[in-house]
Amino acid sequence: MAHLIEQQGPISLATYMELALAHPKLGYYTTRDPLGAGGDFTTSPEISQMFGELLGLWCVDMWEKLGRPDPFVFAEIGPGRGTLMADALRAASLVPEFTRAAQVALVEISPILRTEQLKNVPSATWYTSLADLPNGPILLLANEFFDALPIRQFQRTDRGWCERCITLQRGDPDAPPSFQFGLKPDPLAVHFLPSSVANAPEGAIVETSPATDSVVTTLAERLHTQGGAALIIDYGHAHSAAGDTLQAMKNHAFADPLAEPGHADITAHVDFENLQTKAVGASAYGPVEQGAFLERLGISARAENLKQRATPDQAEEIETALHRLTGRTAMGRLFKVMSLTGPGTPAPAGFE
Ligand SMILES: C[S@@+](CC[C@H](N)C(=O)[O-])C[C@H]1O[C@@H](n2cnc3c(N)ncnc32)[C@H](O)[C@@H]1O
């Protein structure tokens, strides 16, 4: 990366994130399993089986609403260890016709995580991008996928809008250079920033994600022409707003996003209003808060049910997991859920 900047000059934050996260040999996701206690962060499916089970039953309900298509593509994008899909398939096996009709498809760029996914979802077929998936009606899950996509950042200055870029800082001539933010004037930015933030005050930072826009546009076009539904869960904001949400996680603690590219998870909050705007041709539901969504799907009843067969220690773990997933100061409020469906599809569960 430093070599690239030396040769070409400052790079955009999006290029920095793309290389740091997804470089085939040096990228964060392509070189490790980052999940769980021994990794850098934990996600909802890794906290409790209840999460994947409820999403699996949401998919069965949606499949019924779509008229029981057979076959259909049952896809997950950014599946981590495959835990969510494994739990969803186990719960969905209550309706064997669903499982028989499902062509399980996982979209994943990481060879290491594909190996983990194979252990948990042996019936899957793997793809590198959404555009490669087989044709047909689709049910798609995406948990903490969009936050991992590269963003661009723009800052309003006394010179007008500038793009925040990554440059090199040289201190000790014997030490490798470090990365730092710089600003590059971009007078055209005002034309593609969300109109609600284009008049933000001096100093404000506004984020866009061309990679997110491309995935959502492809997904919505597919839902429009081939039918189906998607469920997107992530941390983020319901309305487009100015703010710097770039963050890095290492060993379950916040880290400097520029300190160790390739060795920390670098993410940004998802702008759900932008997802809806870019989902041309699809119907959008939500976002609703994860806590409310899971409650509507019956997570408390499922927790009670699991506790009846649990030891006291296990029952305490189930209660803790329930709180982490739904509590307003835990994941229940920051995490949001949005559904996109094809035209004419009945409203999905959990958004009323
Ligand atoms: C934060 S993890 C979430 C994992 C999983 N969904 C969960 O909830 O445990 C992000 C996942 O997206 C994958 N990923 C990142 N960028 C991707 C891309 N451009 N295309 C497909 N998968 C990607 C990562 O390898 C990883 O599996």
What does this structure look like?
With 352 residues, the chain is of the alpha/beta class. Helix content is 36%, strand content 25%. It is built from 13 helices and 16 strands. Strands 2, 3, 4, 5, 10, 14, 15 and 16 form an 8-stranded mixed β-sheet that branches. Strands 1, 6, 7, 8 and 9 form a 5-stranded antiparallel β-sheet that branches. The longest helix is centred in the first third of the chain and has 17 residues, at 49-65. The termini are far apart. The model has no long low-confidence stretch (mean pLDDT 95). It binds S-adenosylmethionine.
Write the layout of secondary structure elements.
Blueprint: H1 2-8, E1 11-12, H2 13-22, H3 44-47, H4 49-65, E2 72-77, H5 83-92, H6 96-101, E3 102-107, H7 111-120, E4 125-127, E5 138-143, E6 152-157, E7 160-169, E8 178-185, H8 189-192, E9 205-208, H9 210-226, E10 228-237, E11 247-250, E12 253-255, E13 265-267, E14 270-271, H10 272-278, E15 283-289, H11 290-297, H12 299-308, H13 312-326, E16 335-341
Parallel strand pairs: 2-3, 2-5, 3-4, 5-10, 10-14
Antiparallel strand pairs: 1-7, 6-7, 6-9, 7-8, 10-16, 11-12, 11-13, 15-16
Helix pairs in contact: 4-5, 12-13
The structure holds S-adenosylmethionine (SAM).
